[in-house]
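This follows on from our talk about sequence and fold. Go ahead and set the record down below:
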Amino acid sequence: MTGLNCKEWLRNWRLVLVIAGKLHLTKYPIPVPPKQVIIKSSCDKHNFLVDESEKIRDLMLLTIDPEFRKDFESLGPYELIQSVEERFQKPIEEERARIFKRLAECKLKEGSSIDSHVLRIEAYIGELYKLGYSMSQEMSVNILLASLTSEYDMLIQMYRKENQKRAFMEMRPLLTLYESLLDRHSSNGSATSGLSPVKRHSKKRSRSSGHVLN
């Protein structure tokens, strides 16, 4: 567990513990030793639970990155899971939600460079990937298309009609080409093949030479 993959780590451990019949050891803290031992069987049961809990805890520690391991060494399985969720999972989920919100609000502004816009959306998708969320190509393309202005409607309709399945970065040259056709159509003031008359914004576009995230 490195922090970013804590959700998967927790899910895998819970599955392993269910199969091993040990999930109950993560549902409550290691019990405090009884102050007075009246019945030997009670003492034996307590020692057994402590023993099993420590074994599970030690195995869990082995799967945690050494950078974080020392912070959890004194905890039992229950406290360890609670601490991992509090320290890693909640902040990551909050950051993902923040980026998703920004991604949903990211719309192409009239007159802006389509190239810069694609790179901006790609950067948000890259941030989500770093936080452990891998977005499918289809979903990323759909988000990109939904962020475009109405002047791209014809291209989107053709894309849907032909049921094209392109990777996200394959959309970049396609959209850039379409943008250049729109610009040419706007500057010529005449109908361009395959394009309906659309009023183009006069604002000068700024081309981006940014690097693409992997």
User: Anything to note?
Assistant: The chain has two domains: 6-92, 106-188.
